[in-house]
Amino acid sequence: MTPGVCRFQKKTSGLQRRAVPAIRITGMSGEKTHDQHTVAIVGAGPVGLELAVALKRAGIDYVQFDKGTVGQTMFWWPPQTQWFSSNERIAIAGVPLLTTDQRKATREEYLAYLRTVARTFDLKVRTHEPVTDVERDGEGFVITSKHGQRTHTCRARKLVLAVGDTEMPKRLNIPGEDLAHVTHVLEEPHKYFQRRLLIVGGKNSAVEAALRCWHAGVEVTLACRADGIDAKHVKYWLRPELIGRIKRGEIAAHFGVEPVEITPTHAVMRHVKTDARFNLDTDFVLLATGFVADMSLLRRLGVELLGDNELPTFDEDTMETNVPGVYVAGTATAGTQNRYTVFLENCHIHTDRIVHHLLGKAPPTTPEDRQMPET
Length: 375
Prior knowledge:
By secondary structure, this protein is of the alpha/beta class. It has helices spanning 46-57, 72-75, 87-90, 107-120, 204-215, 239-247, 296-301, 348-358, and strands at residues 20-27, 30-42, 62-65, 125-126, 131-137, 140-147, 150-161, 168-169, 182-183, 196-200, 219-224, 252-255, 257-262, 266-271, 277-281, 284-287, 291-292, 305-306, 311-312, 326-328.
C-alpha cells in the first residue's frame, strides 16, 4: 500500500458497452456539440494511451484530452535522451517496443512508438485541447475544454485523470530566476558549446545534463545542496563517470551550496551550513531542481490531497478516488514526488484495475516482476 494514500472499498458496477449519441444544440452563436461519453480521460501520456486502448478493447466509449501533444512530457526532453527503463518495461498495450540497436529507447524512438500505438488502435486524442473545468452533473461530469479560441463541453459518466507528475518546474523563487539565460529544462546541449553553464541540482537530471553538456564542449559547473552525489539518487551508470570527471577537474563542482540570486553575468551562491556567499561567473544557468504535479483538477473535483506532495486519496484495487466516478492513473497517483518511487513501469496495472472496476470485475493482481521499478 502506498504511504499516505487512504484505501477504501466500494461496490463495483458494470457499464453498458455502447456509445451515447451526441446532443446538438443550435443557437445564435452557431452549432455547439455536447458529446456524451461513458469515460473521459485527461492526459495522453503512455498510461493515458494504454487506458484508451484497454477501454476500446472492452467496448467502452471514451473521449481523451491532452493540453499538448501525445507524450507531451517526453516531447520537451532534450534530443536523444535515453529512458532509464528497459524497452519491455515501458511498452504499452501489448505492443512491442523495438529499437535498432536493442538498447534502451531514446526520446525520439519512444515518441515514434507512441504515435504508432495511437495510429494502430485509431485513438482519437483531442491534442492541444486543455481541460479548463470539470463539474459534477448528476451522476456524471461536464468537462470544459479549449482548443484555440473555441470552448467545447462534453459529458461523461466517469472521469480518469492521468495527468502525470511533472507538469511544472519546481521553482526556487529567487531573484533572476526568470532571466532569458536561465532555464529549468535542458535544451539541446549544442546551444552551450564553448560557453559556461552552471547546473544547479544533484540528482539524475542534473548529472545527466552535466555529462551530456561536457561531452558537447561546454564548460560545466555543477552545484547542489547535498554534500556529494548520493548513489541512492543517481543511476549507477551515470555517477561513476561524473565523479571521475570532477576528480580530474573536467567538471567543476560545488557541494553544500545553493543559489540565492542570478544576474546576467553570475550567480550568487550561499553555503548552506555557514551562510557565506560567493559568486560563480556563468553564461547560462540550468536549474535542474525537479518538477511538481498539477493537481488542480483533482482539487477542483474534491479529491482529498494529503500532505505537501498532494498525494491523492484512492482505492488501490480500483484506482477510484474518494470522489465517486473519479479515477486517478499513472504517476499522478504519487502527487509531486521528491524521491521517485512511482514510474511508468509500475503503473501499467492501473489501466487493468480501472477497466475491471468499470466492468464490475474483481481487481487484477499486479505481476510480481512489475511491483517494483527495474532501476
